[in-house]
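During the reporting period the student researcher (J.K.) took over the structure-prediction task from the postdoctoral fellow and processed the backlog of single-chain submissions. One of the processed entries is reproduced below for the supervisory committee.
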Amino acid sequence: MMVSMSTAATTTSSSSPASTTRVARTVAITSGKGGVGKTFVSANLAAALTRQGLKVLVLDADLGLANLDVVLNLYPKITLHDVFTGKADLEEAILPAPGGFSVLLAGSGLVEYSRLTPEVRDQLHNIIEAVKPRFDVLLIDTGAGISDVVLYAVSLAHEVIVVATPEPTSMTDAYATIKVLSSQQGRESLNMVVNQVSRSGDGRAICNQLQQVIERFVQSAAGQAPKLNFLGDVPLDSSVREAVQKRQLLLELHPGSAASQGIVQVATRLLARQTA
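J.K. obtained the following structure tokens:
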């Protein structure tokens, strides 16, 4: 298994002159609960960043219930499972995706990787370190919730985007996620995207309300409340349902839709932010 990692790393450093200087900006995209459109946001954000001229990789870190392949209508013959078990090299598992970016797919139903064993921890760490020199941006699409695997995947990223919807249950779970990330990982700054908003401006208002609650009840190890950076909202849009049903990127199927413009705005604001 380790041979696969080292082989990939060696191949990368010898084939890419920029590998000694490039280190991907690593962003974990997570959510407090499932069904909020996290993977939809991850895939379309990758497409939007690619259009900005960046080399982007999306790593599907939802090891137990991965569905990035479904969103992108991909049928991979090689996944992270094959890399983990030594059946394939990392290089073979990195696949081109619609939208011009690359993906590293997990494969669904892998119960043995839904727990944070020492093997899973080492493999995830080694894979991320191996791919960083090859890309400008690495998006880690985590599972939902605050399991050990999710929290460890988030810990490997420089920055975090929390995706939520205006529904009370989603906001409650987003708050719980932010609280855990602040207390356990010392996160002093997190980004937020509000999906499925009914009206323009709702996302910022929701983010501001959540910030007020956080300032009252959440403190990091340094004794300060984490700051939420509002990256944008994505409106309710019938074109999203169509894109999901057709297993196509929204930015390619309906690039002029309101939801597509929301994703583009998120990408623009993310790039405008200084990395921590």
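The committee noted the following: The chain has one domain: 2-270.
J.K. will present the remaining backlog at the next meeting.
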